[in-house]
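Posting this for the archive.
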Amino acid sequence: MRLEKSKILSEPRLSQAWGMYSAAFAHLRAAAVQRQVMSLAEFGQVMSDERVAKHLAVAEDGDDRIIALATFTNELGAMPLISPEFFARRWPHLYARQHIWYLGFFVIDPEHRSSGIFEAVIAQMWAEVQAAGGVAALDVCGRNAALGLPRAIERTLRRLSPGMVAESLDTQTYWAFSVDAMP
């Protein structure tokens, strides 16, 4: 496995990345109220946005196949569903210096899970945050929280930075009200 960082993903990597992303996140299409999976057009926009770094793990088996992909940016305006104003209010000095990063998504090819790729890509992104004395944030839907994603990230980061502090920033709960009994 080889780690890479890219500003733009173009063909043929773009199609390969879309296939992995779409397949890996397919289960989230009906698992969360707020949409967790981008459309192909949205995915293409993110992959061509130079403000968003693409962290890749590539198989070294001759075909340079992408086996993991994460998006990471400290230009918070590039992330359409977050509020840069929240981060500016919470950490004004870090925000002013662009020392707040946002992880848009992280996908690993199912065949390569539990292979150390998760930890390697997290370490690659964290090195930037750590060097700046910054903050990294991401959103986690309830399903992935229940599966332990925040704890896995926290364990990885504590190995890299024992004094690292983890905290939940916000919670959103969806409600339904019905006259008839819910199915």
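Residues 117-132 form the longest helix (16 residues). The chain has a mean pLDDT of 90.
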